[in-house]
Amino acid sequence: MNLPNKITLLRIVLIPAFLVVYLMQPFDAEVNTWLSLILFSVAAATDALDGYLARKLKLVSNFGKLMDPLADKLLVAAALVAFAAMGDLSVWVAIIIISREFYISGLRQLALEQNIVMAADLLGKLKTIFQIVLIIYVLLPIEALVFAPVTVGLAIIAVVFTIWSAVDYTLKNKQLFSKGI
Predict the structure, then answer these.
(1) Average of per-residue pLDDT across 51-59
(2) pTM (2 decimals)?
(3) Could you tell me which of 25, 163, 26, 38 has the C-alpha nearest to residue 88?
(4) How many domains does the chain have?
(5) 3-state secondary structure of 77
(6) Which of 128, 125, 4 is nearest to 64 (CA)?
(7) Which of 88-92, 145-149, 153-157 has the lowest mean pLDDT?
(8) Contact residues for 163 (Cβ-Cβ < 8 A; gap 6+)
(9) Is 179 a residue whose pLDDT tops 70?
(10) Whole-angstrom distance, CA of residue 109 vs CA of residue 117
(11) Cβ-contact 21, 76 below 8 angstroms
(12) What pLDDT was estimated at residue 54?
């Protein structure tokens, strides 16, 4: 178990901690708000850190290749479902983003069965950045008058990039459909 893999596991462990604080609100409101923000932000930051260290230290592993993207999807999905449950984000935003993640995971599995590697590209990375920005914004302690319009704008941007990246991956890998179906 190398350092990048331990960092990936830390991200997975932070997910239930984030959910407990955000959903169960065990402390006073201000502590819950800031602790939720810190837990999610640290978890999100580990995404960049584990990948950077794996490449720099030449510690890329099969475990990391599998678990790193899974940890990212779990983190984002957990936050979006929690937001929808608490009424802090529209359910349709969560459904579109999570559906895309399942779809691309299936597409990657289909590619893997055909010995094709579907590497993450710039559009996929931008999609992730916009999703994380949206989630962090929702977690910020901001007045409601400012919050709602900006949240809607960020949600639309995140959804547009989410759909765009799904279409892009599909078009770039359309040969999978003729071979795999």
Answers:
(1) 92
(2) 0.91
(3) 25
(4) 1
(5) helix
(6) 4
(7) 145-149
(8) 96, 100
(9) no
(10) 9
(11) no
(12) 92
Q: How far is CA 17 from CA 6, 35, 95, 132, in A?
A: 17, 10, 23, 17
Residue with tokens 């065990």: 26
Distance CA 59, CA 52 (A): 10
CA quadruple 26, 91, 69, 3: dihedral, nearest 10: -10
Among the listed residues 18, 46, 50, 27, the one whose alpha carbon sits nearest the alpha carbon of residue 138: 18
**Using one digit for the tens of pLDDT, what is the confidence trace for 76-93?**
999 999 999 999 999 999
| Whole-number Å distance between alpha carbons of 31 and 62 | 38
Residue partners of 177: CB distance under 8 A and separation at least 6:
none
Range of the domain at 117: 3-180
Q: In 10 A of CB 84, how many CB atoms?
A: 17
Pull the structure tokens for residue 114: 């055909």
Extract the tokens encoding 28: 């006073």
Where residue 59 sits, what CATH number does that domain have? 1.20.120.1760
Quote the distance between the C-alpha of residue 126 and its chain's center. Answer: 11
